[in-house]
Amino acid sequence: MIVSPSPHLHSPASTNSIMRDVVIALAPATVVMLLFYGWASLLVLAVACVGCVGLEYAIARWLMHKPELFNGWSAAVTGVLLALNLPPTTPWWVVVIGALVAIGVAKMSFGGLGQNLFNPAITARVFLLISFPVYMTNWDLTGGFINSVDAISGATPLSIIKEGLMSGMTLDEIMEVNGMNASSIIRDLGGSGGEISGLALVAGFIYLWIRKVVKPWIPLSILLTVALISGVFHAVNPEYFTGIEINIISGGMLLGALFMATDYVTSPSSKWGGVIFGVGIGVIVMMIRYFGSYPEGMSFAILIMNCFVPLINRAFHQKKYGRA
Amino acid sequence: MTETIIWTISVLTALGLLLSLVLFWVARKFRVEEDPRIDEIEKTLPGANCGGCGFAGCRAFADAAVKAGNLDANYCPVGGGEVMKKVAAILGCEVQEAAPRVAVVRCNGSCANRPKINEYGGARSCKVKAALYGGDTGCLFGCLGCGDCVAACQFGALSMDAETGLPVVDESKCTACGKCVAACPKRIIELRDKGPRGMRMYVSCTNKDKGPVARKACSAACIGCGICAKTCRHDAITVTDNVAYIDFSKCKLCRECEAVCPTGAIHGVNFPKPLDKEAVKQRIADRKKKEEENV
Amino acid sequence: MSKLTFSIGGIHPADSKLARDCKIEVLPLPPKVYVSMFQHLGAQAKPVVAVGDKVKAGQIIAEPGGFISAYVHSPVSGTVKAIGPRKDLAGFNVVHIEIDVEGDEWAEGIDLSPELVSAIPEDREFILDRIKMGGVVGLGGATFPTHVKLNPPPGKSADCLILNGTECEPYLTSDFRILLERTDEIVVGAAIMQKVLGGCKCVIGIEENKPEAITAVRASIKKLGFSNMNVAVLKKRYPQGGEKQLIDAVMHRQVKSGGLPIDVGAVVQNVGTSLAVYEAVQKNKPLVTNVMTFTGNIVPAERQRNYLFRIGMPLSFIAEQAGGVPEGTVKLVSGGPMMGKAIANFDAATVKGTSAILCLGEETRRHQETPCISCCRCADACPMGLEPFLLKKLYAVGDTAALEQNAVQDCIECGCCQYSCPAYVPLLDNIRMAKAQVMGIIRARNAKK
Questions:
Q1: DSSP assignment of B49-65, as one string?
Q2: Which residue, among C418, C428, C430, would best test binding to A if mutated, counting the most A CBs under 10 Å from its CB?
Q3: What is the pTM of this model?
């Protein structure tokens, strides 16, 4: 007979089941990516997943000698998120470097699962963005199974607009020169896998919400902040500042807000802490988009706010019983 | 191009100079006057910050020693006599010699001696286990085997023996800091004098149950029969609450108690030769005979 | 009326009330009973009989060992065989009185007839004395002496007596059965306690998964004509039956940290206690019997039982009567699966507060602990609003000041955190240790003052 302290029951949830749910939630977006970008993106996905899972196993087993630190599903989440963050044309060796940075640097060097300060997939994306800007900002739409897009390659709408603004044009002029209009931006969104599949991402997030894996406070506060800031700025100067729709839907905003900022380990533990975290991300990303030199900025915003999580956790606590 | 290089170098140099001046000024301004002997003593100490001396760390030890001006309340068990002599030299005072000690595990309830009666399924911590129930063997007093002592030891001197399920002390590494003694919820670890050339005797059991109960739980338990106390010629053994205890300051290492113990609860360690039980028993019998004749 | 519940945390384990339709059966007497001197919170009771004495059922055999303590009565008639240490269900030695059972003769003045006595005595002191002399303790789990709880300190008075019929622990059905089979007695017991507390109102809290009990109690209140008493239907949620949670659910008041329910005008009593109060006051029958459940997910449906047992019966004897412990049992638990104690010694005797023998299968075996992923499910589940993951980390580094600041002493040990942790971290195991440590520090500090 076993003797142990109470409780003697356990809920069916486990770390594995949660991570599996996240992978399931990312599946629709992944399918969209495969449909639009074809075999090339499948290669990126495969390399990213195998790389992340394999590296985590290898590092936990042979470098840290703590095989219990390996969690396959958690590494797979990082792998899928990394793939969704990369253009389909990324050479396989760049993806491998990304996996190495995500798992080796951002995750395992901090002590593995649950110990990392920064979101592994974002750290890898930022590393690659700075190290290999050429691979990271170009993509090719020719390989897709569905090809509704006229352009065969180019830059993301946000970077086209940024470049235009830098050269002194107004928004309308940029739209005209590039043959863009409000609806074509949404239809012709280019970018990494995670940037073209807004609806699929939202569907996946709703699945996670229903399964009670995540709570909506962080994404809501990010999106509301972004909407508020872009709404106000756009109203003040529509010539220079982009509007709400384009800011919400492009530049990895949805992928970041729904799946990267909600990462358990690197987000605050309390509800109001999460709201502060989300507002912080929203403000930073809009400052980068409007006044910085990078057109997108979501990754940087999340990484910057990741730094503040321990501080936020100190300041915000759960509401306690009988201590009002 | 050259201009850029020159500018860069000169700006950086100027910045460096400026900041070093600031640092210099801050260091001067906020300097705390301290007795230099504190630093000196701290350097002499082992630097393990184990707290075995009763102070928060080596620095606190040094601080207290300098403040007191003597070493009456300070003794570093890790450094031992040699380090203490050096510390005394710095302070210019005397230090009392203390015999080196070592942690001794007073439980012999190996898996073979003490059968398991249930399986513990909680957190791997002796403290949690001790608070929960009587334990997974019939013995309420013995080692729980979750290794709190091993976790508490900063010197790597303790390890769990997989076969017996009991902690083993590596005498060469043990510094007698006492962390394991405090960590053990059953209080089975004791700091005892190391003894000449490491030779020492101890009762490897703390079971306070009556003989038959203790025996039933563990075949190597002290059953409090008192034969050892009767045999001892040096008054070193006392039996209280059904368990024998050897006072190491009185023990003369004759090993007679070990020979007469019916359950093998008394252990002698580091003796050059294995104990010849029969010979010792014969010796005791002869002596008793003589005594009777004298009477 | 809308369904009530508490405001912070909580979990929804499957309720598994497998023995809910089994009528209460009376157990036969074993050859020997072992009556523990430690069946209540507070000081151990002191035996007042000697070896060889003849005792009758219902006769006092031990008296309180302090202010917070209780009388203990013989559950059977027979001869005192021994008085001495015996192992309790955790394997610790506790003084027990061993009695050889010889028939079932009850002491003088105890009314064993089944007739309902609904006329409530007028004298408050008389009632309190009967409760005290009857050895009645809280049967909701804590076994706190009832006469102490019903006698609030001067300056404090009760607005509301909450009768706890939630039985929020999975598997347990004993409270449900007595609510169905002994409804009138429980309601009269509640009215007696109302009287003692100075005529405050009474709310009987029952969870929505027991509709039959809700109907029965409502009908009984109507029949007996008690006006100041009603039933509150509560949502099914664990730990609804926790004293502080129930007060929050029913009265929308929260007891301050370190405070008592009476500070917010509440007194919470279990329905089982109410039955014991009825028997002690109206029938002069002391607390020597109680109802327990023999259940578990691997116990076949036809072997699920609800038993009326006498205190002092060995657990193993009861299991034998139920056809033995089923094969495949890996853990035996006394009480519910969330807060009950694992049984280390199956020969231990039942005590006043015993509520169940649970036979749990493989799924109760704990999984290997994995790293915390900061999902905060523990914090969301904690009904006290604590952050168990943080408390565990603070305990590991031994920061008692921070532990106190983060209210580890408020923990009610309900197990919600450990239940919901997907990484299988033994949160409560550690927090319990931390709580004990901090409580010790707080007590020492208060003693100094």
A1: ---TTSSSSHHHHHHHH
A2: C418
A3: 0.87
